[in-house]
Design goal:
Helix content is 64%, strand content 0%. The chain has 254 residues and is mostly helical. It has a domain of 129 residues. It is built from 15 helices and no strands.
Length: 254
């Protein structure tokens, strides 16, 4: 593994390292793990077996994306949240589509429902909760959706309440709008809530999104020439009748 010039040879060497627990190999495994799309699964397995593996996995998680991030975050979830909970609650989701494979695992393993309803809540936790909920709203076929996440009503209500106390940003606006749109479009039993719970949560989100300062923030910070803006305006904003995008919707023929 240290001297192999062929990918298959290195794979064999890394496979052998998944069978022992030598701490001295951690730096080597981390380095190989940076080539995460190919070596990610084996590197995560090898690090998971080692006593100091959690710190090494966290180091790797900060430096990989795509499929590599999936492998590493799933390994952290399998280990349990004792040493990685703070990171899982605030940084696991980086916005990639593949986050759908592990968002539900993160929410469950890190006990998100306890963290977001505690007295010690910070902006990073609230924002990441929004990302987790947004991913779980639309990851059917990949991972756990809100429909199969028992604490969904509690976490959604807590996120909406915390959102109302935060200053507006485009990212916060978009996450909240996509969550509200999902809740509105789905039958209550498909989003983990009763009809009453769902309607109450949606109204809390919409009340925040309709504030003048929140409207101004998203109109200022969201690029009106981007493909995302066009999609968001035609679909999410139109369905929710968001006032911040009424002019754009009118200009699009509605």
């Amino acid at each position: 593994m240290r001297h192999g010039t062929d990918r298959n040879v290195v794979t064999v060497g890394l496979t052998l390292l998944t069978t022992d627990t030598a701490e001295d190999d951690i730096p080597l495994i981390q380095t190989i793990g940076l080539l995460s799309n190919w070596f990610g699964p084996l590197a995560a397995e090898a690090l998971q077996r080692r006593r100091e593996g959690t710190e090494a996995l966290l180091w790797l998680a900060e430096r990989v994306s795509g499929w590599g991030r999936v492998y590493v975050v799933e390994a952290l979830c399998r280990q349990g949240p004792a040493r990685s909970r703070a990171w899982l609650l605030r940084h696991a989701c980086d916005g990639d589509y593949l986050n759908g494979y592990f968002a539900g695992q993160v929410a469950t393993t890190a006990h998100l429902h306890e963290a977001i309803t505690s007295a010690d809540v910070d902006d990073e936790l609230i924002d990441h909760t929004g990302r987790l909920l947004r991913v779980m709203a639309d990851c059917g076929g990949m991972g756990m959706t809100l429909e199969h996440y028992p604490p969904a009503p509690v976490v959604l209500a807590a996120h909406a309440a915390h959102l109302a106390q935060q200053p507006p940003t485009a990212n916060r606006y978009v996450d909240a709008a996509i969550i509200a749109d999902y809740l509105t479009a789905k039958a209550p039993n498909r989003c983990g809530c009763t009809a009453e719970q769902r309607d109450h949560i949606v109204q809390k989100y919409l009340a925040v999104l309709d504030r003048p300062d929140w409207r101004d923030a998203v109109r200022t910070d969201l690029d009106p020439t981007s493909d995302f803006f066009a999609w968001f305006t035609r679909h999410v904003a139109a369905r929710l009748r968001l006032g911040a995008f009424s002019d754009a919707a009118d200009g699009d023929g509605r």
